[in-house]
């Protein structure tokens, strides 16, 4: 596991600061997801789905504001997703 983290730093996938916060205790994947059902209206801007990895470092309000800002800047969903992931890794 340590080598995987070091390789990620070498490849620029994440920062040394990010891996310093990582502690593996038990399973790496949660087997019991949080599931919510709600009706989306025509005023819904986007749907943000993420794993615990994002929510460990950013709350939902900040994540939505981040994505909304990204989409206003350039309107590209792929770039917004990549920027959100990068923000959580730094």
UniProtKB/TrEMBL annotation:
InterPro entries assigned: PPM-type-like_dom_sf, PPM-type_phosphatase-like_dom
Residue ranges constituting the PPM-type phosphatase domain according to the UniProt record: 1-90
Pfam families: PP2C (PF00481)
Protein known as: PPM-type phosphatase domain-containing protein
Source species: Ilex paraguariensis (yerba mate)
